[in-house]
């Protein structure tokens, strides 16, 4: 007795043009979400802006951390690397004619920067109105040796 099985109609892999079209659809959706108030403004828990300025004899580091409390910020210097870590949390409420949307975002974000030889005892840290400023003196060539 022989059994004959029909091949099931299985979808084939998408053609390159179909794949591009699908990628564009999802990219456009993700970009639209990223441009929303919740994802891109002060409630973005994944990142923050940090700038490092070399002033010759010292480094000036500025980190923009809106809606972060001072107690939720940690600044560490270890083996030539300065790390700023913050815990961000927030809730954004949007109301419209036929909708109500509430997004809660929370999480840790961290950035590190490699500095040259610095005097970590000279580190001066201030936090005011959502802006963290760190000033740290460089070591001279004589002090390094």
Fill in the keyword field for this structure:
flat; three-stranded antiparallel sheet; four-stranded antiparallel sheet; 7 strands; alpha+beta; 145 residues; 19% helix; Immunoglobulin-like
Question: Can you walk through the features of this model?
Answer:
This protein is α+β, with helices and mostly antiparallel strands and 145 residues long. It has a single domain, classed as Immunoglobulin-like (Sandwich), CATH 2.60.40. It has three helices and seven strands. The strands form two sheets. It has a four-stranded antiparallel sheet, with no helix packed on it. It has a three-stranded antiparallel sheet with strand order 3-4-5, with no helix packed on it. A hairpin with a 2-residue loop joins strand 3 and strand 4 (81-95). The longest helix has 19 residues, at 16-34. The N and C termini lie far apart (90 Å).
